[in-house]
Amino acid sequence: MAIVKNLGRTLSQLLQSPGCGCQTSIVPVRCIGVSPRQVTSDASFHSVSFSETDHPRVLITEYKLIVPCAFLFRKRFGRNNVILSDIRKPPDDVFYNGPFIYSDILDYKNLCEIVVNNRITWLFHYSALLSAVGEANVPLARAVNITGLHNILDIAAEHSLRLFVPSTIGAFGPTSPRNPAPDLCIQRPRTIYGVSKVHAELMGEYYHYRYGLDFRCLRYPGIISADSQPGGGTTDYAVQIFHDAIKNGKFQCNLKSDTRLPMMYIDDCLKATLDVMEAPAASLSMRTYNISAMSFSPEELVQEVKKHIPELQVTYTVDAVRQAIADSWPMNFDDSNARRDWGWKHDFDLSELVTTMFNILGSDSRVAQIN
Ligand SMILES: NC(=O)c1ccc[n+]([C@@H]2O[C@H](COP(=O)([O-])OP(=O)(O)OC[C@H]3O[C@@H](n4cnc5c(N)ncnc54)[C@H](O)[C@@H]3O)[C@@H](O)[C@H]2O)c1
């Protein structure tokens, strides 16, 4: 009976806590121990400074999509205050631009070592298996996207980190409103990717209300970047078209020509990510926001690309798995809450996006330009 009473009291305290910025002093779950495999930071990656600084010390899990983000953060926070990590070997431009470290998000102790040894204060958690790749290997997607996220949440809560996790249009499903999808609505995705992202949104918010974790999450549209190769997502056709158009003047699209999806140029994505991380906690009326910039179909993108490469030949060979995924996703996002709460505003529309992609891919890569 006493247990039931205590449980009731705890629950009622929990449910009464304020919507945002509520904190309890209870810290979750796993104890922090010193790993027998602890090594000095210098042994793990190169060129790390330990000088005192007011800047956040940032760890980013994965290096692909977010490479330009890391480079911008390094300009802002200092080169050695931003550490990239992945389980894959980075290319030279990533490795020599600043600290890079091997990190498997399924290895909890290793993650702890990295956070402690480098006094990390902000964690950007990008590692994930995307939609099409996830459907091809559900057990791995479940491990990386769900078990990996649990490791990240525990470490972030235990070490009082500010945590950013990207969500996606894939977190919505066929029963969600599609044009536009608001921040709060039915979310019943039918891919392991989508299910894991809804799980991430809910667990992050739960840790925020339960343990005071400073969790911040944006639902990205399809992100278009000249710096990263397509990685197995359903919106990747909109990146592939630029590479194929420049390389051989031909493009085979794996979605139907009229499949409309929300998209965003990488610079807008980076700006939104930094803005929401720097926003005062008091301005955040929620912890997971939609962000939106444009919405287009393959045919509309093709027409815009043809303004630069008129001879482009396009064929449509629909991939049934990707098409079913795309048909279950929103065509548009309602991002009015982000615009109101922390002043989100996009800069790139379709025509600017296409011109910028050709400017970058047609000349040196932007990584070289930033360096
Ligand atoms: N690309 C987009 O358009 C888009 C849109 C919305 C959200 N996002 C989100 O952005 C993030 C990154 O997307 P992306 O396009 O770069 O994906 P990607 O598939 O290109 O890269 C995923 C990265 O995760 C790494 N990884 C896999 N297993 C790992 C492990 N056990 N430990 C550490 N790293 C591991 C891989 O090595 C890879 O570098 C994802 O969380 C995704 O949901 C991307």
UniProtKB/TrEMBL annotation:
Belongs to the NAD(P)-dependent epimerase/dehydratase family. Pathway: Amino-acid degradation; L-threonine degradation via oxydo-reductase pathway; glycine from L-threonine: step 1/2. Gene3D superfamilies: NAD(P)-binding Rossmann-like Domain. This is L-threonine 3-dehydrogenase, mitochondrial. Residues 94-291 form the NAD-dependent epimerase/dehydratase domain. It catalyses: L-threonine + NAD(+) = (2S)-2-amino-3-oxobutanoate + NADH + H(+). It comes from the Eukaryota. One of its GO terms (biological process) is L-threonine catabolic process. It is an enzyme of class 1 (oxidoreductase). InterPro entries: Epimerase_deHydtase, NAD(P)-bd_dom_sf, NAD(P)_epim/dehydratase. CDD domains: TDH_SDR_e. GO terms for molecular function: identical protein binding; L-threonine 3-dehydrogenase activity. Its EC number is 1.1.1.103. Catalyzes the NAD(+)-dependent oxidation of L-threonine to 2-amino-3-ketobutyrate, mediating L-threonine catabolism.
